[in-house]
Amino acid sequence: MLRYVLKRLLLVLPTLWIICSLVFLLSKTVSGTCQDWQQGEIGQTFSRLEPARSSNNLEPIVPLFYFSLRSSAEPDTLFRVQPESHRLFLKSFVLTSGNWAAIAAFYQALTTLQKRLQLMPETALTNKQELKQQLESVFTLTEAKQMQQTLEQVERQAKRQQLPTHFIRQLTFAQHQLKNIQAQPVRALIPALTWHGSNNQYYLWLKAFILGDLGVSCRDQISVNDKIAEAFSNTFFITVLSLGLLFFLAFEISIWLNKASQNKWRRFTLGILYALDSVPLFIMALALLTLLASDAYFNIFPPYGSGRIVASETPSYVTWIYQLPYLALPVISLTIANLPYVTGQIHQAVQQLQNREFILTAKAKGLSESVVLRRHVLRNALLPVITLFTGFLPALVTGSAVIENIFSIPGMGRLLVETVLARDFPVLMGIVLYLGFIKISANILADGFYFLADPRIRVPS
Hints:
This protein is mostly helical and about 450 residues long.
């Protein structure tokens, strides 16, 4: 058994590495960085953080990978330019013109202009914010003619407001540098390969992942591991209770349906299950919330939350006992929503085994119908059930997003929704990794169950 599991674990390692690499590449396709979000340059969700606080959490400015394939007109240190919008602007500009020296001179003149505008007191400039936005908009343009028109517009406003002479001179100098950019398209077509070594973002990210460090949240600077662990504990509790109750009821209903004495009730019961299967999960949850947690009907369970906060020294089992009434409705909702499908699958698997020779032999020995179903039929119907069980494990974790938002439970599903809305991408990437790890763990668990349930796997061919 141990050797079998170890073989499966060795096969899983490449899969885990591929998932990690894909998550890393996915995180790099997102526009902007944590530095941009903290400075409020991307989106309106994030509040501005204190400079002293944000400066300690910036990512190291290193290349993306071990090597990079670039245009020969593009410098090999372009990755150092921050923020990302400036870097993308320079890369696009140099690929169209090929004249990096002239572009660098224009960029330096433009950033100097921004710094001088920033140092001007607010009292000396009525529309300082408008001028800042106009200068920043230059980094979103792709044609030199559009950049020239924007700078001329800024110059007219500066002269109208009688801004300091040094600012107007710098503005004129920036326009002069823009006009000096002569296109050299041939250089942009020549490829160049640069080796960066192990000091790159992928190596540092993978090393941190192996050590269990997924970074910090861009929103509140809390460790990604801490945020996910806190949310996962609630979701795991709901998932385990739902899976246990779901498969217990599904097995019992399937056995009951396959008894000969229940023929008259079989069609009626299956009809009810098919009707329940057509009800969406959120409607089921809202109906239970109205019926069992409101003053209008039966106020049996608490409607929202995950239980009161207990002292840190309180044992875990005491905390779980406090949480049970709050988790009752979410567990019941998930169980009822998935019960028709699981019961139908187990019922069909049991029916297919009813006329097998070993079942007829067991009946011929005089064993009762209940013993035949539980001891012989169910054991041989375990293989499709194992696949179903391990497939439901990650599905329930991700599918709990609706339940956790309806019942205000701080779990993985609710964290996922909040993270997407807040564009907190480090936490989002951590959730994707956790879900991938859960899926892999479910597959390993399925292999172990197959090994225990099917003697053909244990015996060499």
